[in-house]
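Homework-ish question, so no full write-ups if that breaks the rules, but can someone show me the predicted structure for this set?
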Amino acid sequence: MSWHATVLTLFPPMFPGPLGQSLAGRALAAGLWRLEVRDIRDAAKGRHRSVDDTPFGGGAGMVMRPDVLDTAIGSDDGRPLLYLTPRGQPLVQDRVRALAGGPGVRLLCGRYEGVDQRVLDARDAEEVSIGDYVLSGGELPALVLLDACIRLLPGVMGAEASAEEESFSAGLLEYPHYTRPAEWQGRSVPDVLLSGHHAAIAAWRRAQAEQATRLRRPDLWRARVDSAPAGP
Ligand code: 6GU
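A: Not a homework solution, just the prediction itself:
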């Protein structure tokens, strides 16, 4: 069975969206992963099919009803249930790798001010954020999470790319890249890259990756250094 993604959303036409193109789109067509999009409104009852209601305690906006969401989620099948929210734990590559290595994901996309907390607790949902800014719903974050997972599935990328992936596993940013022409608008490519000395190129790239990480992402740099064995 291929990696199985289920998306619960009020906006089914947003899927597969960009994941129908390029790398993920080819993998989808090839059956390397499978996408099931479920309209949350199909689980709503009554003449108005309402999926939300006003918040207890007052305040702005609407809250998605727990009974409707519980019906939409349906039965458990061993795949983790993730709720996309800026309140969640930040998504990191280690988690992406673990999700890609499992049977798939069920992604709950919220709208409005949020969803009733009780359904998240009852269904043991994992709350995930894709960064410290606020989006209008969970659909774009769901697409981001899926893209990050799909590129790691076996057969989706060439073997060269899985080795490349280890750059981030090592907790470093990528080194800079160059291609032809060797001189462009008065700017030349670093000499070492034209030297043909593979060991020197590897050392230069390593140093560039370390410098970029230290300068741009001191948080990542610290995490990497702190995980090194203690000195004498
Ligand atoms: Cl997962 N959802 C929303 N609505 N906004 C976000 C987010 C998620 N992650 C960052 N901002």
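Now go work out the reasoning yourself. Hint: The helical segments are 22-29, 66-73, 93-100, 117-122, 139-150, 159-169, 198-216, 218-226.
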